[in-house]
């Protein structure tokens, strides 16, 4: 599951779509790292349950993928379709997320009688493309290659201004002492 609260409440469908796209991409990357495939995608939105002055709405929709996949494009297409079906104008959303469900190991995938050599070639091409994307992102830095361009300052961007130091998990953030 990949989810995050938005920096500010928003009803802008484009900002929410970008967030869902970002979450779906992260989930697919994690899935490929684990050599897994997903059979279904769940997309959800939430309004702020602590704001009694606002109307509450917390929809979710589970959609089955056409075939088990770790391809970001297929996951994002399905997630985008789910978002279009659950989004309602007039609500201020606080959080959105994507959950990949019914996970299987890529090496133990159940074969289908309906698969053709063309679909097998397409799956191999897809795996090569996703592998190349992951390799570039690993070598050049996270989000070097991504699907879709996020708008700057969107409500879903992570704001780290008040984050505490991460000395125990980041070598580059260890305090440095200089003897003078």
UniProtKB/TrEMBL annotation:
Domain called DNA polymerase Y-family little finger: residue spans: 2-113
Pfam families (UniProt xref): DUF4113, IMS_C
InterPro entries according to UniProt: DNA_pol_Y-fam_little_finger, DUF4113
Residues annotated as domain DUF4113: 128-176
Superkingdom of source: Bacteria
Protein name from the UniProt record: DUF4113 domain-containing protein
């Amino acid at each position: 599951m990949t989810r995050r609260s938005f920096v500010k409440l928003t009803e802008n469908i484009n900002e929410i779509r970008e967030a869902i796209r970002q979450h779906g991409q992260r989930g697919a990357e994690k899935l490929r790292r684990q050599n897994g495939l997903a059979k279904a995608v769940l997309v959800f939105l939430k309004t702020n349950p602590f704001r009694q002055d606002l109307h509450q709405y917390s929809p979710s929709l589970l959609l089955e993928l056409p075939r088990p996949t770790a391809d970001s494009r297929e996951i994002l297409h399905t997630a985008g379709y789910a978002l279009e079906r659950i989004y309602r104008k007039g609500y201020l959303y606080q959080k959105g997320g994507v959950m990949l469900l019914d996970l299987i190991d890529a090496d133990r995938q159940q074969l289908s009688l309906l698969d053709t050599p063309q679909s097998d070639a397409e799956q191999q091409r897809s795996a090569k493309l996703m592998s190349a994307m992951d390799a570039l992102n690993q070598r050049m830095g996270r989000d070097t290659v991504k699907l879709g361009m996020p708008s700057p300052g969107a409500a879903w961007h992570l704001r780290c201004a008040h984050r505490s130091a991460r000395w125990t998990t980041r070598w580059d953030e260890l305090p440095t002492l200089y003897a003078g």
